[in-house]
Amino acid sequence: MKILYIAPLNSVHAQRWITYFAEKGYDVQVIDSSNDVQTRTLPAQVKIHRVDRTTKLSRVLARTFPYLFERYFRWAIKRIIRFAQPHIVHVHYLACDAAFAIDDEHESVVLTAWGSDVLVESKSKNIEKKIRKLINAAVVVTHDAEHLRTRLVELGAKPNQLRRIGYGVDTSAFSPGKDVPSLHKFLGLTSPNVVIISTRALKKIYDVETLLFALSILQSRGVRFRAIIVGEGDQRTRLESLAKRLKLSPDTIFLGSVSDEELISLLRLSDIYVSTSLSDGGIAQSTAEAMSVGLPVVITNFGENSEWIENGAAGRVFDARAHLQLADHLDELISAPILRRKLGIHAREIIIQRNDRNEQMKIVEELYAEIIRDCIFDPHLVRS
Fold first, then answer.
1. First CA to last CA across the chain, in angstroms?
2. Global pTM value
């Protein structure tokens, strides 16, 4: 089976999905829909295509001849698809320019909505129009939450197009384990301090400043903690400056991007996970990974988050931007190690039962086979 993904390779979640199918022996190619020229950790056999829109020449042409440049860009994407001759074209993240090149001539298009693409970016009339056209060209649209399904229907998806499939977590890798003493020393961690970790990207939508304000409140109460903030993004400099103004150093550490192995080690030495995101699709991958390691989670009360932690059995929820409410939840868990352990054990059970990667990817694999089988007999069968 030949699979061509259109996906942002600056996302570790896209990398993991693609890696899974490449390592299963499928012929996998990728059109990188991001503009981030960074090292991509994909298997060597995966062929990566890139139509760079960030070069100086591209930017000049886009400004001077926008209509012609867009036509050229779409032509370049279609040319890649035509020469790749994939059985499946699978788009991750619907609000990307590369995906908008797809039309009805491709009979086996699968779309996966991530969350902010359909919940936030589709509020733009121009983006909404393009997403509607993309959905119309798709055989199947996958999502991982009911509020995403509702929005996709509003954007024109038909019930028989929609499938609920999660990203899944590698629960064998993201599992409880022993701390690495040298990492404790490197981070300056001491045993009385509870470790709070955030692993969302440092972008506005993830609102990490709310965590910083909550930490400042804890500090003013005399609560002892260490906070580890993992991730990169355009807000990093501003957030680091805010942490300095709030006098959170040295109790708060910004680590930037880390490898999967480093992330697992950091989660294992942590005691509480926090997500301050203003928008989530289903359960955020970062949150699910922390739960899989056995951490209690404190997350915004958005979408299905409360359902995923089973109304407090695996953590706590707080209203978006409510830093005082977040501080109170953290204060509660910091002072209750037995409760933290109980919540963390249940959190891992939830992920194993409902969001194991191998189980979710098997569903995707079966979906691919079903689409190919249906298209052989009638290319438009699934759309009818």
1. 24
2. 0.85
